[in-house]
């Protein structure tokens, strides 16, 4: 398909509005379609400078009837030689230096041309979000504005014949500068265009002399500032690279990575099927091995070695080319982590032995590692598990973000106080170390620091980055918590003023109306009469102890016909969070609350989460209720949905609820209701299990904190009571009922959650292990078959074995995901783990954004209020789903990392011998899981034996044989073996990460 643009025409429509017309002619199968796009231009777009006396009179209110705010200061910062100035930035500066733009000590009064905002959005969504936040929330402090240059009659430009889109956009930015310079000349305010693009700067030099604005590179601009030294330290490394490129002689380059393919070749290859696109996932056990899942392949395609990975980061979207069949191989049976790899590299890049000139892509490391790799290659040939391998030929989207790490002490020259190159080891062990330049190397040793990655030129072995800020000392709670939040991209800053302004003015004094037919209340809330008054129902909530954000409450009552009325009542969050508000935007962006051991990062402000929405006992609260009539067998006779007002009679902990139910002396109505709920929930659960719902496991532990000192005390494995299950079953039932209802009403855009069946290849390895070691097998024909076969994986000698298999199976499963119904066909809606055909999340709107959307769709479905376009538009729903899927995953990882950190702290003072299970056997070590702490650790071959060279790895038997230290007898260790391990917590000197160190005893 080709698109041809016919020269645009301009015409004046009415006062203040012109239109330029673009005609696209698309030919498809020889035919042609004509598409006309109209682009409206206006003359009422203000400059937004407080100095300006012209623009105040031309502005018109927007759709919300608000006038634009004039934000740019009358007294912007002065520079010597230049005087008062506003800054205009181009796309690359934003992508490169968003940290600097956010920095509170530079970049004030900044104009972001709309074309730049658009380009940033296409290139990096995370940076776009940060830029949007800056423009939205920095009124008083930094004063960033977006100038709609593309809609302004004076600044819009047409693309010239033969002009590339990039050149056209650069020219559009220059046009904006030119207009601003002219427009503000009278007020003594200058315009500086900050751009690192040399060609652009040269183009400006030609034009700008006559147009009266300045242009500077980022470095030149920083140099003009009064705090230049401090700011220059934070400048992305790419600048240094660009400046010094000519100075780096060929023979000093450390490695030559293959050049990326040209765009045209990539596009051609993707079309013809000779190249493939996908996301790289780096192995957590071997950072020099990645894989790409490609639709047409049954197994991920392997990418082995640094040269084939060709500078790809974990999570990058890349284009790969398959290697010849002779180079196909099995996944690595060797473990290798980045932090201990080439520890002695010199960050100045001199004197390194160039291991990379060797064309064989697997020989990338030291002699010792090379021997292991050789062994590995031999093993791979013996086995039949050969997989196709590929190399990266292009990177289409970088996953680069800010990273937390610490300076590698060995890379610091202690004798100099000047600027020097050092390595930063990142906390994420799937990533390479980063080279930064800093003056503060010594001062930053032993600190957690934030860095940004800037570039990875092909002659550099490690990517270049720059220092952003320091979080504090390694192992201080503040630094570690912030590090963890940053690493998992959790938004933890306080809610902005604009968000808080969306909360009810009454604050904590907000009250649900006493009567739903009170005319005065109805005048405030016209939807009030549509609510059902359920304050007479004996409702209670059951949650973990100390829960303050109570999303859900329940009740049950015997009906005259012998059936049960059961209600699940969910906090009516969307009564307070309206579509399109800043509060809604913030919730959508956060996507979920994040629970750490000692901290909760809320999705919504506290006032809502723990007060107005929270279904606290003894007070009236708005709710969204699902009301069923269930028969004694827990079959649904009837279901109704209604917005309601309720009054919870009690907030129980699981344990309190259990005690109350179990106490035969309690015979009040509330307790009878709870007993009925429990009895019904047991039937619901049985029905689910009969249908094939899975009962999987994860090694979940809970860390008890000392309430006085906030120090972690002990670690406990989570216990489950029958009341946990009671709540869970009714939440599942509510989610399923709501899913059906919103799918009926909005077949294309219903917010749902699916869980795909695992491909059988995911279980291949586990099944081989089970077959070989235990003569057991997991079936994958259906979830029912899987559930039944899991039940059969029992070792009479070892109670824990079944749980172990469930834990290992969980890791073979696919992740559940949010989606909108138009994205899949009905059979693919299935939730495999729960064994239901359709599912959503409705029951936790205080802490999950999916539920917020589901509430709005349900409100639309029952005619409570019309559904906004936001949740009826496939494209918008797609954006929401992508974001909440990512946020949900990150929140899970952050929670786990928090537990891991605290478990490490607990173990610090308790060295002990514990029972562990071997869950993986490598060529050069074993991985052991310790159930008591929920930790797993790698025991390297060096720590098992003094004679690592003599160790024998039997891949087919999942067995490693070696001569233990201080022993003459050979010991064999195989997968699933129960072993005693000494557990202690150590601080790794290279990564500064505390982790469980395990030793076989
Ligand atoms: Zn103006």
Automatic annotation (TrEMBL):
Region named Disordered: 338-358
Q: Does the keyword Electron transport apply?
A: no
Q: Does the keyword Metal-binding apply?
A: no
| Cellular compartment(s) | Cytoplasm; Nucleus, Nucleolus
Question: Residues in domain S1 motif?
Answer: 911-1001
SUPFAM superfamilies referenced in this protein's UniProt entry, alphabetically: Nucleic acid-binding proteins (SSF50249), PIN domain-like (SSF88723)
Q: Which GO terms describe its cellular component?
A: cytoplasmic exosome (RNase complex); nuclear exosome (RNase complex); nucleolus
Keyword annotations for this protein, in alphabetical order, are:
Cytoplasm, Endonuclease, Exonuclease, Exosome, Hydrolase, Nuclease, Nucleus, RNA-binding, rRNA processing
Task: Name the InterPro entries on file.
Answer: Dis3_CSD2, NA-bd_OB-fold, PIN-like_dom_sf, PIN_dom, RNase_II/R, RNase_II/R_CS, RNR_Ribonuclease, Rrp44_CSD1
Q: What Pfam families does this protein's entry cite?
A: OB_Dis3, PIN_4, RNB, Rrp44_CSD1, Rrp44_S1
From the UniProt record, give one GO term of the biological process aspect. Answer: rRNA catabolic process
Task: Give the protein's recorded name.
Answer: Ribosomal RNA-processing protein 44
Among the GO molecular function terms of this UniProt record, one is: endonuclease activity
**Cofactor(s) this protein cannot do without:** Mg(2+)
The UniProt family comment states: Belongs to the RNR ribonuclease family.
């Amino acid at each position: 398909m080709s698109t041809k643009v016919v020269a645009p025409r301009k015409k004046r429509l009415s006062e203040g509005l012109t239109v330029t017309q673009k005609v696209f002619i698309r030919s498809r199968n020889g035919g042609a379609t004509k598409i006309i796009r109209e682009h409206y231009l206006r003359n009422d777009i203000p400059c937004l400078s407080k100095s300006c006396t012209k623009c105040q009179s031309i502005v018109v209110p927007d759709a919300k009837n608000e006038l634009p705010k004039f934000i740019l200061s009358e007294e912007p910062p002065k520079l010597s030689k230049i005087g008062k100035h506003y800054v205009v930035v181009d796309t690359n500066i934003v992508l490169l230096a968003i940290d600097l733009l956010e920095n509170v000590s530079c970049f004030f009064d900044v104009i972001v041309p709309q074309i730049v905002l658009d380009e940033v959005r296409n290139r990096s969504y995370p940076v776009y979000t940060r830029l949007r936040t800056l423009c939205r929330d920095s009124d008083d402090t930094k004063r960033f504005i977006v100038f709609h240059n593309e809609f302004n009659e004076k600044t819009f430009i047409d693309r010239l014949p033969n002009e590339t889109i990039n050149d056209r956009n650069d020219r559009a930015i220059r046009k904006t500068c030119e207009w601003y310079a002219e427009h503000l000349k009278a007020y003594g305010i200058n315009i500086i265009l900050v751009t690192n693009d040399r060609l652009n700067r040269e183009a400006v030099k030609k034009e700008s002399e006559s147009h009266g604005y300045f242009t500077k590179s980022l470095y030149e601009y920083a140099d003009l500032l009064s705090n230049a030294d401090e700011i220059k330290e934070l400048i992305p490394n790419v600048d240094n690279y660009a400046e010094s490129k000519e100075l780096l002689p060929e023979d000093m380059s450390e490695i030559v990575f293959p050049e990326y393919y040209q765009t045209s070749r990539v596009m051609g290859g993707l079309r013809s099927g000779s190249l493939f696109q996908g996301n790289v996932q780096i192995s957590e056990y071997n950072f020099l091995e990645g894989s790409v899942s490609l639709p047409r392949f049954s197994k991920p395609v392997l990418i082995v070695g640094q040269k084939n990975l060709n500078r790809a980061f974990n999570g990058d979207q890349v284009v790969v080319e398959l290697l010849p069949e002779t180079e196909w191989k099995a996944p690595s049976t060797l473990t290798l982590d980045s932090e201990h790899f080439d520890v002695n590299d010199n960050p100045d890049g001199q004197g390194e032995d160039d291991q990379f000139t060797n064309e064989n892509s697997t020989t990338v490391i030291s002699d010792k590692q090379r021997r292991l790799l050789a062994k590995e290659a031999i093993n791979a040939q013996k086995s039949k598990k050969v997989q196709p391998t590929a190399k990266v030929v292009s990177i289409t989207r970088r996953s680069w973000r800010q990273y937390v790490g610490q300076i590698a002490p060995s890379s610091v020259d202690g004798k100099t106080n000047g600027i020097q190159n050092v390595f930063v080891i990142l906390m994420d062990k799937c990533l390479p170390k980063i080279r930064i330049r800093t003056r503060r190397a010594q001062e930053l040793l032993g600190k957690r620091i934030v860095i940004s990655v800037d570039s990875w030129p092909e002659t550099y072995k490690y990517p270049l980055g720059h220092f952003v800020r320091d979080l504090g000392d390694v192992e201080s709670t503040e630094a570690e918590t912030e590090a963890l939040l940053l690493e998992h991209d959790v938004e933890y800053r306080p809610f902005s003023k604009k968000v808080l302004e969306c909360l009810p003015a009454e604050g904590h004094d907000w009250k649900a109306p006493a009567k739903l037919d009170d005319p005065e209340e109805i005048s405030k809330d016209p939807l009030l009469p549509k609510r059902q008054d359920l304050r007479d129902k004996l409702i209670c909530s059951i949650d973990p102890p100390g829960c303050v954000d109570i999303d859900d409450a329940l009740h049950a009552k015997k009906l005259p016909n012998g059936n049960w009325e059961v209600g699940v009542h969910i906090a009516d969050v969307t009564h307070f969070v309206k579509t399109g508000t800043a509060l809604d935007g913030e919730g959508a962006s956060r996507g979920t609350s994040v629970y750490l051991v000692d901290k909760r990062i809320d999705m919504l402000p506290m006032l809502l989460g723990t007060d107005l929405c929270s279904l606290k006992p003894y007070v009236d609260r708005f709710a969204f209720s699902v009301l069923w009539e269930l028969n004694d067998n827990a079959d649904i006779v009837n279901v109704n949905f209604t917005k309601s007002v309720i009054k919870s009679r009690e907030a129980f902990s699981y344990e309190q609820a259990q005690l109350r139910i179990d106490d035969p002396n309690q015979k009040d109505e509330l307790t009878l209701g709870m007993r009925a709920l429990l009895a019904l929930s047991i039937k619901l659960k049985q029905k689910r299990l009969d249908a094939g719902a899975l009962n999987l496991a994860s090694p979940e532990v809970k860390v008890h904190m000392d309430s006085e000192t906030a120090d972690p005390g002990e670690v406990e494995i989570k216990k489950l009571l029958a009341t946990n299950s009671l709540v869970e079953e009714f939440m599942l039932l509510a989610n399923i009922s709501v899913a059906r209802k919103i799918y009926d009403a909005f077949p294309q855009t219903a917010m749902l959650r699916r869980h795909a069946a695992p491909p059988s290849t995911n279980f291949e390895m586990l099944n081989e292990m089970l077959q070989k070691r235990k003569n057991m097998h997991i079936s994958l024909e259906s979830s029912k078959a899987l559930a039944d076969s899991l039940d059969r994986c029992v070792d009479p000698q070892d109670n824990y074995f079944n749980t172990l298999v469930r834990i290992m199976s969980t890791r073979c499963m696919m992740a559940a995901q949010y989606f909108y119904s138009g994205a899949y066909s009905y059979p693919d809606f299935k939730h495999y783990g729960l064994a239901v055909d359709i599912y959503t999340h409705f029951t936790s709107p205080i802490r999950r954004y999916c539920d917020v959307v589901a509430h709005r769709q349900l409100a639309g479905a029952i005619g409570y209020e019309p559904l906004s376009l936001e949740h009826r538009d496939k494209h918008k729903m797609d954006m929401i789903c992508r974001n909440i899927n990512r946020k949900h995953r990150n929140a899970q990882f952050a929670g786990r990392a928090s537990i891991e950190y605290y478990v490490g702290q607990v173990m610090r003072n308790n060295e002990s011998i514990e029972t562990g299970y071997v869950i993986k056997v490598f060529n050069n070590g074993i991985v052991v899981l310790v159930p008591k702490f929920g930790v797993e650790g790698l025991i390297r071959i060096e720590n098992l034996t003094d004679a690592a060279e003599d160790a024998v790895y039997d891949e087919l038997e999942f067995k490693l044989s070696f001569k233990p230290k201080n022993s003459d007898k050979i010991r064999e260790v195989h997968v699933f073996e129960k072993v005693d391990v000494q557990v202690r917590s150590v601080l790794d000197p290279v990564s500064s990460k505390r982790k469980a160190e395990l030793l076989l005893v």
